[in-house]
């Protein structure tokens, strides 16, 4: 359980709870929960009446997980800065509770934003979310006398809050924030923040396994973009619409509407074909379209897509190993053994390159002898950091070797299909040398 969920048990976040708005206290408006003319008293009243949880000093007494720390300085400095920022926030909270007029109306929410950024660096996403919720609440209070005056800042805060909740894997709460943001920004649907929110709405519905709703969300996003393009007289398909169509096809595929997903993907392919700087996107779309066509019983169309893209894919001498592997398997299934063999050979060649590069990088990181040169940290800390980097590179080697093994096994199957048994046996033997083995972990330094 996160600190926020534990410390705030039974509390109702302001405007972004689990789908329900808190009941207004007697005498408060349902929109802002504030009495007219009580702007200075509104903030503490909201905190008190809704049992609203805020970041407290004791909540910062927790260890920093080095794997989640995102800062560029020592974590203990970031913690100290967070404590100092929180002290200023607590002073400003007390001033508002007494009804004092602050020098700057935005001093408190701006300080809360800085605190939330520091907590995000530390990887304490639950506490960062608490700070951003309080920031949002204050901006709402400030916005009440002049609706819309702080709309941009509230949008920025809701976007940041959504990111913190997603990082904390609280997807239902993040979805509630997005729905609230889209409702608030319904007259600014074309702005970047609203477009990003709609994309994340589809992603989160899928993560919550609400797949039919994810399809509807993706379709609505495509329709909104098309409508905007028609009104502006722009290109029928641009980068934004292309990404939206790709997400829409993914969601259609996920609910079993494979033929529809193939038709949507077919609309995307010409866009990537016309761009020389999008080789990976083009190859990935060829892979996805041929796969969906094959699974929807349109084998000839699937083969035609691959054949049409073949020469361009061959001209790309780097990367795309996974695409070539998929195409090899698919072509074999579609009954084109010679083409399948050529694709599998491309996959093996490229995966061998990946393995070579991964091994070289692993050896270079492991051989570094300057891992203990940073005198700001203890030797134990530097050793742990060095070993984490080595293990990260080692995991890349494992993944590259695993992928090469799968490609070799697929190549062996293609070779047997064209009656090249000896070559197939050699590919199988090479694959057998890539079986995973346990790694010996070196001892810590004395």
Commentary on this structure:
It is a single chain. This protein is an all-alpha fold. Helix content is 68%, strand content 0%. The protein has 17 helices and no strands. Helix 5 runs antiparallel to helix 6 (151-167), helix 12 (279-295) runs antiparallel to helix 13 and helix 15 runs antiparallel to helix 16 (379-417). It is flat and about 85 Å long. 36% of the residues are buried. Mean pLDDT is 85; it is low at 1-50 and 437-446.
Structure described in brief:
The protein is 68% helix and 0% strand. With 446 residues, the chain is mainly alpha-helical.
Draw up the topology in text.
Blueprint: H1 3-7, H2 39-49, H3 75-97, H4 107-121, H5 125-143, H6 151-167, H7 171-184, H8 192-207, H9 211-232, H10 239-254, H11 258-273, H12 279-295, H13 299-315, H14 321-333, H15 337-366, H16 379-417, H17 421-432
Helix pairs in contact: 2-5, 3-4, 4-5, 5-6, 6-7, 7-8, 8-9, 9-10, 10-11, 11-12, 12-13, 12-14, 14-15, 14-16, 15-16, 16-17
